[in-house]
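Researcher: Next sequence.
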Amino acid sequence: MRKAMIRSVSDMIRNEADTSLFLVDIGVWAFRDILGEYPDRAMNIGIFEDGMASLAAGMALGGIIPTIYGISPFIVDRAMEQLKLDFAYQKLQGNFITTGASYDFSTLGYSHYCPEDLGIISMMPGFEFVAPGTASEFTRLFGQSHRDGCPTYFRLSDHVNKRDVEVDFGKAAVIKTGSRATVIAVSTALDAVLDACGDEDVSILYYTTLTPFDRETLKNHYNGGNILLCEPHYEGTLAYEVYRTFPDRPVRLSCVGVRREILRNYGSKEENDIYNGLTAENIFEKLRNLMKS
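Model: Next structure:
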């Protein structure tokens, strides 16, 4: 997915003269050609995420669309105030591309984990949140949204889905339809959902745009109100959007996601998935219990 991002952002800088790129000591070698060719619009600022966000906001005020690339917790947590005041408050356009997801940097520990990113970004009205599940999905979603007039956060992961889906910004993709429950598969959780639910009589909806949340597609797949939400960040983060979709109808909601605790685990990403229950086995068990209720 990172290679697709590098291609898309490089093409943007080369072909769109009103764009800029800022790095925080990550991706410098990968973007070396762009940094050399366009030093006035592409630069490595260094480990200075909060100041870089304010610098990017100044560019946006001047009519330049900025793109920032860094590791998720350093953009989301360290520069949160700047995202809030410089971009959300002023309604500025910009792109914030992060790598690391919840715990892709699993051997580096909690300082490099960021399961809270959606919770933080979604509390800033006007911000968009995009979480592609494959490289080609990133390319499509970035092309559709990188200059749509809003601040947009892109959550990249090194652990992608096996299946590519033709996704569109702002819309959920209907993978299959059924009658007993609706399973929401968010971003890189799709593979585990398909392994767990492929033969079940359920609808599977695939979300890669999380803010704004596509309530209309979910509303069309109510299925008695049995909803299983599978998200590769803190569990229940999208629960508000689910309940808001059905203000006058009962909903039985079960959630699979990252445990809401400080993660002191190391090891592999797969080991963290097992610990947090982001596995086909756990999803299947949650679905069976939901359909029995």
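Model: The CA atoms of residues 2 and 156 lie 7 Å apart. The first helix runs from residue 2 to 15.
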